[in-house]
Amino acid sequence: MPNAEITLFKNITNSFKTAFEETSLELINEKLNCIDLCDQKNDDGNNVSILIGITGSLSGRLLLSANYTTVNNFVKKMNSGMPLESEDETGFYFAEFANMICGKALSSVNNTTDNLKLWLSPPVLLTGEDIAIVNHTQKLHSEKLQYSGTLGDIILNIGLKKGE
Amino acid sequence: MAEHSLKDPLIQACNDLFPQFGLTHKFMCELKESSLNSLEKYTILVGLTVGLSGNIVVSIPEKTALKIISAMMFGAEVKEIDEMGQSALCEFTNMLMGSTLTILSADINVDMAPPTLIVGEGKIVLSRHVESKKLFFKLDDSKFNIAYQTTTA
Is B24 in a helix, a strand, or coil? Predict the structure, then answer.
């Protein structure tokens, strides 16, 4: 991949990193810091994933993944420390977190990068026992970020390629 | 604003694509569902943006997946699905969705994200409380379905 494209993808990843930190601060009053991960294996072992498609000058997707415990911890904090009345809603709160991250990141990218316009598809909540989201089929350039802390582990996987 | 249904473009795209690979399929029916979900081992998800905002989910049991992959490999016998088989399945879906959007472009321009493959047994819930429609198809003695949920963007 040309260096200019790698630089562009790194800048976009940084936008997602900033958006993740700002959104977590907004929603749970705590800034969750991410680190870059080199491990690009399939996202197994996390029971809850949010997938948001990206189209436009670049195409791909954001995957936000965590296990049930971490998602519950996060959503409880979103709800001022109280568990939700309905367990079913937990995933949707987490999906809204992912949607806000993407919205912020792409607004920043669209406003600050010349000749780049990106759009989002609605978030999809993936839950199920023993499911694997297969990464190799899309031929995307992937960057992986991880938050690890008192809430648990949350992984952001940003995959992009040139739009068609 | 007129609602744009994906039903006819999806059926037409299947009618165009499957015979190209020597596959015999048949559209059976369309049903409404209260959520976007998949009960099959292979689920391929495609996000839509621009003219329509939403998602399409192609659900394929293993038996059907083996037939499709074999057809894409010029009839070679395929007993299990490895990485190459998974890529072939995604590529087939990519062609199907591309064709669907080309047919739809007579009315509305829609953009799509690259397909994401999800592998797993048991029910995968993709989106609750979101009314969707599901098209059921037969493929020889096996089956598959395509669910979609969209709003005008």
Answer: coil
